[in-house]
Recover the amino acids of this structure.
């Protein structure tokens, strides 16, 4: 039999549009992992690796980390065993060099399956990002008003400390939006031209966005894996 088709989703949308939240939710239903370049950089910063120290300067300014480093990092991640059915890209690619590199990496496996874009207005993005709190241990994302943890400042999942990302301070957010429109938003046209773009209203509650996302995926023939959560009775 020919090699099984893999599912590669590229989540598009400005910072704070909910890509990470949705990728985290959907990786379980789809059975393919979230690959967040931002999360990989942050975990390298936490571990004080050479890569992390290099990336931090760019991230704190809201600028992109250089392409060669980022692309190599994604290549290494894709070679790991859990990526052999596909992945959900969250925060990659972010410019035209990266999109071309990604096409090259995925060419042997059928290329990108779909690029859903989460549409959210800029003022909403600002509100979301400045209220966002992230777990230092597991990266789970909260919002001080819309999705607060049970105990303030503490992650529901593992008790980790919740913090405001260094690049989520208002001044940096403005630059990240600027970088998004200048460098990343042309990819919307790129995927549209390939017939791979799917619009999702990102200004709804996380559950509603997930539902719309699942509908869009189903419309494009992307099958939802049913996890064997219920075991047969003895
Ligand atoms: P994110 O968590 O996706 O918002 O990413 C946080 C920061 O990490 C970005 O503002 C960039 O500085 C850096 N970063 C994440 N993904 C990429 C990428 N694909 N290319 C370059 N820099 C990235």
């Amino acid at each position: 039999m020919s090699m099984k088709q893999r599912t590669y989703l590229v989540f598009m949308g400005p910072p704070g549009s909910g890509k990470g939240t949705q990728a985290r939710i959907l990786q379980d239903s789809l059975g393919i992992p979230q690959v967040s370049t931002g999360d990989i950089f942050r975990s390298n910063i936490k571990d004080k690796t050479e890569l992390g120290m290099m990336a931090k300067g760019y991230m704190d300014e809201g600028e992109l980390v250089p392409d060669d480093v980022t692309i190599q990092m994604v290549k290494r991640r894709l070679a790991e065993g859990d990526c052999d059915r596909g992945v959900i890209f969250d925060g990659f690619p972010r410019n035209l060099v990266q999109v071309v590199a990604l096409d090259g990496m995925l060419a042997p496996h059928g290329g990108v399956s779909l690029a859903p874009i989460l549409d959210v207005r800029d003022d909403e993005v600002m509100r979301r990002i400045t209220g966002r709190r992230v777990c230092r241990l597991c990266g789970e994302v909260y919002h001080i008003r819309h999705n607060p943890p049970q105990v303030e400042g503490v992650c529901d999942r593992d008790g980790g400390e919740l913090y405001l990302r260094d690049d989520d301070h208002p001044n940096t957010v403005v630059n990240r939006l600027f970088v998004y429109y200048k460098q990343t938003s042309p990819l919307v046209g790129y995927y549209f031209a390939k017939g791979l773009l799917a619009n999702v209203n990102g200004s709804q509650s996380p559950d509603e966005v997930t539902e719309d996302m699942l509908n869009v995926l189903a419309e494009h023939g992307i099958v939802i894996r049913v996890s064997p959560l219920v075991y047969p009775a003895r």
Remarks:
- The pocket of adenosine monophosphate is lined by residues 15, 37-38, 41, 58-59, 62-65, 70, 91-92, 94, 98, 167, 176 (CB under 6 Å).
- The longest strand covers residues 7-11.
- The mean pLDDT is 92.
- Residues 211 and 217 are 10 Å apart (CA to CA).
